[in-house]
Design goal:
44 strands; 2 helices; single chain; 748 residues; 56% strand; LptD; 15-stranded mixed beta sheet; mainly beta; LipoPS_assembly_LptD; elongated
């Protein structure tokens, strides 16, 4: 069948320049590349598969030979393939298209190929290009003396590749930071990869031979199966480490990464990560396994060790079954207490595994969950770590108000089991009524009523801390409370902005509650601060309830100016009854007058942020809690500091209430646009007077980190030094060096 010729009319002539050397990565100085749309006039009617869109300044047609010769800004288009050249000869009998002079071709993926001379078929898909430059969609470039494209696959002889910029900010040519040269290069857009034969890497003037058969992504997508960027590090315990990840693209929604780790001082390890995405949700699992020596997880331990299989697993997932039901879970387990720290995977001191089934709609919430904890601290005993299964929580908000207020119902059940220790089962049902009104004077008044019924069962009650253990057997209690909370905001102008002063007072009354007969599993970490000052129950969980009558008073302040804001809150409470409190001494709530707590937050644009939380002794105004965090700078250059001191004079009742002090510092400085220097430190300032069990004795560095990095559009490099001062078992103190470098598109 003869092809129909569509003439789109004349286009203005644009100047063209000659091509550079055969392996130059510079873009030829031609007019703009072919647009990703049809030639002018093509929008009048879509082209059929057997039609070719065609335009030029001059056109000659040889009737006898059936040859079309076009010159002067020639443009052709067919099925998403574009051709532009100074001159095109089209033999309609053989279907051959010859183009010369500032030739540019574009495929449907948006990749541009430049050349001096091109031989194509009349589908504009397959052909040969002399002195070829292929510019990929992501900006990467392939230059070759000769290139062939067949069925969308481009093969280049004696070629060079680089994703780096080839011009500077002024548009002048520059040598790319790195490039790959090869005897043969193949670009497969379907697999989105570039393959090399006989390749060499040129980096900063150095040549490095690569694998005989080497490939990497072309930058248009993830790139499929292949090697990832290797990691280099050195630590005192494991010695030099080399890790080379290999990525498997199992399917568009599933992948697997295997990473062998080779060490100079210990046996190799293998790490794996599997990820899957479906229409319902996402799931991933990763882990690591090795055979190495292990010492007892004791602070400062050293000496004989045993070789054994060691490792960890970390999995999580979430599935949305329908608009209301969700299933999520996580699994975190390690073979021993020091594996994660020794192999620099995590510094968590507890691992939590969970499963949770949830249903959420506009007025109700249901959760059926379970937890398991693994303790990694040297003092943790496996038998005392709890299983929580099941943990059921249901909440329902009634649509219709009762006496003008909103009502929320809650039912909760929890079972905690230990293989060596206290077992607890708990269930309760509660109702809460809230009525919020604005008075004629602009006061915000909230009235609250609360009622709850609990039932507990305990076996092997904790004897070492009686206030945590409760009594063995079945026990029940009833809880009730009423509260009135009044806020009175005053708003006015100040310094060209707006300020708001809000006095606040709250009264809460609750009859005596049976607390000490019940075990305390979730209300141990008691600390008065600005977040719970006006709470109905200032214990953090359900197992303890603050009874009696009290009045809480304080104030809030807010100031909003252009590029500046300030927030502050301060308050105190007074217990109206003289009944002894169950709050431990030092928590700020044990006496009738509570300590004074507050928070101040200052922000200046995006450059400065400062937050300070404090608790002052009610008698001496001594600082019992001082926590400050400040950040100054931009994303590129910044300084951050944090300070925490808990000086509550609490007895060593349990680890949840121990005093401590620490300082955290961090900074990053951008240099010369591409370079940066960074560092951080954590220092334990806890003294023996604050915590008799502390080993810091007033000053003990925990960890230092210092490094530098370089990053541009196609290359990044960094070197980090870290020193750890804590030692537990075979997770020893010492130096670690991490070398990181990355070449754009290289890896995977």
């Amino acid at each position: 069948m003869r092809k129909r010729l569509l003439w789109f009319g004349l286009l203005p002539l644009a100047p063209a320049a000659a091509q550079g050397p055969s392996t130059s990565l510079q873009t030829p100085a031609v007019a703009e590349a072919p647009p990703p749309v049809a030639a002018p006039g093509a929008d009048e009617a879509p082209l059929a598969e057997d039609e070719i869109g065609f335009s030029s300044r001059e056109l000659n047609y040889d009737d006898n030979a059936d040859v079309v010769t076009a010159s002067g800004d020639v443009r052709m288009i067919r099925n998403g393939y574009h051709l532009r050249a100074d001159k095109v000869v089209w033999d309609r009998k053989s279907g051959q298209v010859s183009a010369e002079g500032s030739v540019v071709t574009t495929d449907p993926q948006g990749d541009h190929a430049y050349g001096d001379r091109v031989e194509l078929d009349d589908a504009l898909k397959n052909g040969v290009v002399e002195n070829m430059l292929l510019v990929l969609e992501d900006g990467g470039r392939l230059a070759a003396a000769r290139g062939t494209r067949q069925d969308g696959i481009t093969t280049l002889d004696h070629a060079a590749y680089s994703p780096c910029a080839v011009t500077d900010s002024d548009g002048c040519p520059k040598v790319p930071l790195w490039k790959i040269t090869a005897v043969k290069v193949i670009h497969n857009p379907d697999r989105k990869r570039i393959y090399y034969r006989g390749a060499r890497l040129h980096l900063l003037g150095l040549q490095v031979p690569l694998l005989p058969n080497f490939s990497h992504p072309d930058g248009s997508a993830s790139g499929g199966t292949g090697l990832l960027v290797p990691n280099f590090s050195y630590s005192r315990v494991n010695g030099a480490e080399f890790a080379l990840p290999y990525y498997f693209a199992l399917a568009p929604n599933r992948d697997l990464t295997l990473t062998p780790h080779v060490y100079s001082n210990v046996a190799p390890a293998i790490e794996a990560q599997y990820r899957a995405l479906s229409s319902l949700g996402v799931f991933q699992v990763q882990g690591m396994i090795t055979y190495s020596d292990r010492q007892a997880a004791l602070v400062g331990a050293s000496g004989p060790s045993d070789n054994e299989v060691r490792g960890y697993i970390d999995a999580n997932g979430r599935y949305q079954l329908d608009p209301w039901w969700t299933v999520s879970g996580s699994l975190r387990l390690a073979t021993d207490k020091t594996f994660l720290r020794r192999y620099d995977i995590s510094r968590d001191d507890r691992l939590r595994s969970t499963v949770n089934v949830e249903r959420i709609d506009s007025n109700s919430y249901l959760s059926i969950a379970g937890w398991y904890f693994q303790g990694l601290r040297s003092t943790d005993k496996a038998g005392t770590m709890p299983f929580a299964l099941p943990a059921i929580d249901y909440r329902l908000r009634l649509d219709d108000p009762i006496v003008g207020g909103k009502v929320e119902l809650e039912a909760n059940s929890l079972a905690i089991v230990r293989t060596d220790g206290q077992d607890t089962q708990r269930a309760f049902a509660s109702a809460r009524w809230d009525l919020r009104q604005i008075t004629a004077w602009g006061q915000e008044l909230t009235l609250t009523g609360y009622a709850r019924a609990d039932i507990y069962h305990t076996d092997d009650a904790l004897a070492s801390v009686p206030t945590y253990g409760g009594l063995n057997g079945w026990h029940g209690r009833g809880i009730a409370a009423v509260a009135a909370d009044l806020r009175w905001p005053f708003v006015g102008a100040l310094f060209g902005g707006t300020q708001r002063i809000t006095p606040r007072v709250q009264i809460v009354a609750s009859p005596p509650t049976r607390n000490l007969a019940m075990p305390n599993e979730d209300a141990r970490a008691i600390d008065l601060d600005d977040s719970n000052l006006f709470a109905l129950n200032r214990f953090p969980g359900y197992d303890r309830w603050e009874d009696g009558a009290r009045i809480t008073y304080g104030g809030e302040y807010a100031l909003d100016l252009p590029n500046f804001s300030a927030r502050a809150i301060i308050g105190q409470s007074y217990r109206l009854s003289d009944k002894p409190s169950i709050f431990p001494q030092g928590t700020g709530l044990s006496d009738r007058f509570s300590d004074i707590v507050g928070r101040v937050t200052l922000k200046y644009g995006r450059w400065v942020s400062y937050t300070q939380r404090f608790r002052l002794d009610k008698d001496s105004l001594g600082i019992r809690r001082n926590e400050a965090d400040v950040t100054v700078g931009s994303d590129a250059t910044y300084f951050t500091a944090g300070y925490l001191r808990l000086n509550r004079d609490i007895s060593t009742l349990g680890e949840d209430l121990r005093d401590r002090a620490e300082v955290r510092l961090g900074a990053r400085i951008a240099l010369l646009k591409r370079w940066s220097v960074f560092g951080s430190t954590v220092i334990d300032l806890t003294s023996k007077e604050e915590d008799p069990l502390s080993i810091a004795d007033g000053y003990q560095p925990i960890r230092h980190r210092l490094g530098f990095a370089y990053e541009d559009d196609c290359f990044s490099f960094g070197l980090t030094w870290r020193r750890d001062y804590a030692q537990t078992g075979d997770a020893r103190r010492g130096n670690t060096f991490l070398l990181r470098f990355s070449l754009k598109n290289i890896g995977r």
